[in-house]
Predict the structure of Jg6812 protein.
Amino acid sequence: MCAAIDMLGSEQMFYGRSPPAGFLTDYTPQVRRPTKLTSRGYSAPCLSLLKPVQLTLKAAPRSCIRLSTDKKNKRVVFADDRGYALEHVKFMTEPSHVPPYWALKIVASPPLERKAPVPVVDVWEQRFPQPASDYLAFRRRINEDFVSLENVIVKQNECAVDGTVKVKNLDFSKEVFIRTTSDGWRTQEDTYCEFVESGPVNQAGISSYDTFGFRLQLPIHSRRLDFCVCFRCKDVEYWDNKNGENYTIEKSSVRKSPAIACARINYGNSWTDKSSNDGNTPYW
């Protein structure tokens, strides 16, 4: 009797707990059958065979994306059909093979690149042609008036004027000077010229003309310089004042343009070297 009680206690300990989870998915729980009474007491319980269990899903899996099977009729409605104004009206004037030109109306134009302003500089300029450019008038002035301004060169960087004067060789002793003014002849200044060279000599071996050079400084506090030429020989003065108008060099404001490179053409000997004793050449 005690053995039977111990067996029942061991069975309770064995069947008192739940089987592992793996058994629930693959097998059915064990079925205990009633024990039979024998001559020796109660026999051990008989366990039935474990049969595999096939699990089935109750409902089919659902997708996370909802598919709508509702079909609705679509139609296009324009704004003017409902009484609203159209946003933009464009009348096409271009030919069919030319795309419409809407860039200036729809797309904002990019800002134009500003060019650097052209600097304005002050330049000294002579207000008279070079006297030697008119050869006949230049030669006549020397023969009749015994003195004439030949040419001038304005040097902007040096703020100066270089020039030459030709005089009649009346005597070996002579003086040549330039009289200048920058205030309308309220004040004046004399600048003496230096001897440069003698002209061609005649049959007696005496030159007919002499050349003198000078340099004038341009005024700083004025925009105008007037001058004339004086030739003094044997206590007599001969003047070249451009027939009473005087020679003028003025400062003017001009826009500085880009420099253009030019090729220098050499025509051989300078025309100033073509001198002879017969006096028929255009220069001496």
In short: Residues 267-284 have pLDDT under 50 and may be disordered. The longest strand covers residues 224-233.
